Automatic annotation (TrEMBL):
Its main location: membrane. The chain crosses the membrane at residues 7-29, 41-61, 73-99, 105-128, 140-164, 184-204, 227-247, 307-327. This is ABC-type Co2+ transport system, permease component. It is a multi-pass membrane protein. One of its GO terms (cellular component) is plasma membrane. It comes from Clostridium cylindrosporum DSM 605. GO terms for biological process: transition metal ion transport.
Length: 338
């Protein structure tokens, strides 16, 4: 559900970026009071890498000609908490846009709100955490995951439609576009909810200390080297190799655009779009998760996908290693001053 720049006007793009900056600032402030933040940062890195890799794997939706992948917001939130999850999702989407051309730079704020805010803040806080607030159980985890993921994706897909409407994209009339976007993302949302529930139920059975303590205030140890290493290896396998099996069918957004307008991608027109496109062309060293080669062989195409997956995983972890280093330096400086 990564929107391209052609779907948003400059005004809408800037407006959504301002909204994103507001939510990001609020999330950073909330994390200042998180007693587990130093232990949580490495987990943010490997969980971000895991979700990045998982998003590379589109799964065919039978009978539709479309495909979908997990967004990962509910999964991140259930482990990291909503604000750390939102910042992690933001980092993933920035890396995807800059390095891989997945989602436009002008549309980056839209994508962060649609995929991050609606899942991590709305879906998790207002639905999942309420369902499991009386204690974890298989039934509550399953119910909370499916409801939260489904509602979050419905809100996100509606956000896409409203943003294109506000941008005056006449090729995608509201009534037709929404009639395709909502049903296909309902199916994808239910699928993501089930996958999320299976993962969270497994963690609840094996490592309940990794799940956020909903309604509890005591400090919990949330990470260790073994967990980080397992997630790192899993991310590399997902992004580096299992991504070969990703469906070639258009995702839910592309499919909806195709059904509505007859084309999967719209053309951008205007100086602003040209400037942003040129910037992204230079930063996206692995555009569309592959080498910039015309008509690559099958082997080169698979190699490009593997390199992209491993690069994305490494960069995502690197971002949080850098953040962790800054937090540690700030703490040491504060101790010296005191």
């Amino acid at each position: 559900m990564h929107m391209g720049d052609a779907l948003v006007s400059p005004a809408v793009g800037v407006g959504m970026m301002i909204a994103t900056a507001g939510v990001t600032t609020y999330s950073v402030k909330k994390l200042k009071y998180d007693e587990n933040i130093e232990e949580k940062i490495p987990l943010m890195g490997v969980m971000g890498a895991f979700v990045f890799a998982a998003q590379m794997i589109n799964i065919t939706i039978p009978g539709t000609g479309s495909s979908g992948h997990i967004a990962g917001g509910i999964l991140l939130s259930a482990i990291l908490g909503p604000y750390a999850a939102f910042l992690t999702m933001t980092s993933i989407l920035v890396i995807q846009a800059l390095l891989f051309g997945d989602g436009g730079l002008l549309a980056l704020g839209c994508n962060i709100i649609n995929m991050g805010f609606f899942s991590c803040i709305i879906g998790y806080k207002l639905i999942y955490s309420k369902v499991v607030s009386k204690g974890y159980s298989k039934k509550r985890i399953f119910t909370g995951s499916v409801l939260a993921a489904t509602v979050a994706l419905q809100l996100g897909s509606l956000g896409v439609v409203l943003q294109t409407l506000s941008s005056g994209i006449t090729e995608l009339p509201f009534s037709t576009f929404v009639s395709f976007m909502q049903p296909i993302h309902l199916v994808i949302g239910i699928g993501e909810g089930i996958i999320t529930a299976v993962i969270l139920d497994f963690l609840w059975q094996k490592r309940p200390d990794l799940l956020e303590r909903v309604g509890e205030k005591e400090k919990i140890k949330i990470s260790n080297k073994k967990v980080v290493n397992v997630l790192l290896v899993s991310s590399l396998v997902l992004g580096g190799f299992l991504s070969w099996a990703a469906s070639s069918n258009p995702d839910g957004l592309e499919w909806s655009m195709l059904k509505t307008s007859g084309i999967e991608e719209l053309e951008t027109k205007g100086e602003v779009y040209d400037v942003i496109s040129n910037i992204q062309e230079k930063t996206a060293i692995l555009m569309d998760y592959n080498f910039k080669i015309d008509k690559p062989s099958e082997i080169l195409e698979k190699l490009g996908t593997s390199v992209s997956g491993i690069t994305g995983v490494t960069l995502t972890i690197g971002v949080f290693l850098g953040i962790g280093s800054l937090v540690e330096r700030r703490k040491k400086l504060k101790i010296r001053i005191e």
